[in-house]
Model the fold of this input.
Amino acid sequence: VQHVQFFKKDRSSSISLRSDMLTIKCSKYNEWEEFKKEIMEVLSYYKSIAEIKGIRSVLLRYINKINLDIPVSKLYNYFNYYPKIPNEYSEISESFQIHTRVPYNDNRLILILAKIPYEKNTIFYDIGYVLSTPERITIDEIQDWLEDAHEKIEDAFEAGITEECRKLFKVKENGHIPKRV
Done:
């Protein structure tokens, strides 16, 4: 299958096309309304040039990179969703990943909390919302689905972090703001 990828000049977002797939990625997220507008513009153009027979799957995903230099045993101070690791190993854990799928009617909320070895002092809080039932929505229903997905993701983000973590997002000095990608 042929695969074509287009980038913005500053490489802050990209569009990938195959005959059966469209992917839109944004690495510099400013606000939902702006990103949704970009998604809808790309979909409108795609719809005008492609013969779309149906939608098998849709995924809206946010990968939050949160800078934290703490041992795994202290994650409970920042997250309501975290691994419980025996004390003997919690200070030396170089990586972990917990993955949870929550059903929502014909959709699924996917929660991943992870620390990976090559990203020191970074916790990834990855939240996605995916259409589970193929062809349940049409291309014309995408915007409503995206709004619902965004709301579910925002709710999951807020439910998954503690007040201590919330304070990190309010700090706008010294470059230590967690990135919402």
Summary: Residues 29 and 35 are 7 Å apart (CA to CA).
